[in-house]
């Protein structure tokens, strides 16, 4: 039987909040208390350094870390001292812990989480290391790397209605509160909804929680913003492969992500945007973009997909066979590993992509844009502002013709630099690169004309005037080159494709 979920007791929650805050049980407080080495190990789910560091110091913060992060039993009086207004009895009443002889044992994981301006706490089921055993099928996951990726990549403009599909512990919804008037959050798992209810109440927030699969609970409604960290893990539909609701949507292959791609459009208001993450299969020598074109066809949605990583079938199988607590070397682990490999072989899967997806319902009748890019290196954090600006730029480009692009006096973004590479013996550079310092940290090779154009993009000259001036200078300095036919507007329009790409990347921005 699964562990009971926390209980919202309105009178006790302010006391819990105040005690946790006073004890310094915040992201910054715990980091400072443990130090970078121990905190770093904990981030990698290595509990032993933290267990040793907090064992004997009698510090209230150590008691809370041991109880809620490490899943270690803590004496009643130590909990009373760490939570002086709530006391250990209050924790029991909230269903966060239970009595174990003279000790208190946590029933769930409770971790500080926050932004620069906010301190929150997130309750979820105890992790694999704290439980010391395999997880239950309805395990409610705490904040993981995928949760943090989605939170980082979600832009935060003010909107009216927002939806979080697969709310789980509620991390995405916590962030939505700052910039969305109304929040609806769904989950198929009743325990997840109970954790979400508790975490919302602990943060003093209100979300409308609905039970059901994917878009079913909100059918017929529209939203300005949809976020989802769906159960996207590709899982063999084979006997004895455990089904964990936090990672497995119960569909074959990557169909759960396909369902989200094909389904969210009906829920988006004109101009509305969906941000989600997921895995996709790369099959039989096809390109990863082929799968996306197949999924997007007929949706009418703008799409910007950033593939961040590709794993081969063995890497993917290794990762997910052990997730859930089945250790390498055990027969069940090896059986699961083999099931994943067989499942991939059946469908000719050669790789699994992971990335961040932004879909938008266009505000006006037009051809949707589709931009499928691969960026595997480090990117800015948070990425939300880049995604917001990138969607605005792509939308503008989709709604304006080449003449309009040439009419703008573009400006080189402040984080862009130009690198020239030449052999020491050569006078002229062989390679010129424009490099973005922030955002996706794009770098693009440019030719002489584009480098010259960028050098005059300071908001004074339209692109049309700048290109005409550059053409004139190049013609004067390279008289031996025979002019091609129709150099005028034809050459300018060739440059427009380059300008469009630079604008989409955020290398050129409007003044
Ligand atoms: C990876 S967790 C994400 C939790 C949280 N939103 C986050 O970002 O960390 C996926 C969540 O989707 C839920 N889920 C699984 N299948 C679902 C379905 N068919 N419809 C809606 N939610 C589902 C799971 O119960 C789980 O809470």
Automatic annotation (TrEMBL):
Residues 393-510 form the DUF7782 domain. It holds the Pfam family MTS. Keywords: Methyltransferase, S-adenosyl-L-methionine, Transferase. One of its GO terms (biological process) is methylation. Residues 146-233 form the Methyltransferase small domain. GO terms for cellular component: eRF1 methyltransferase complex. The keyword S-adenosyl-L-methionine applies. GO terms for molecular function: N-methyltransferase activity; nucleic acid binding; protein methyltransferase activity; S-adenosylmethionine-dependent methyltransferase activity. Residues 22-106 form the DUF7059 domain. Belongs to the eukaryotic/archaeal PrmC-related family. This is Uncharacterized protein.
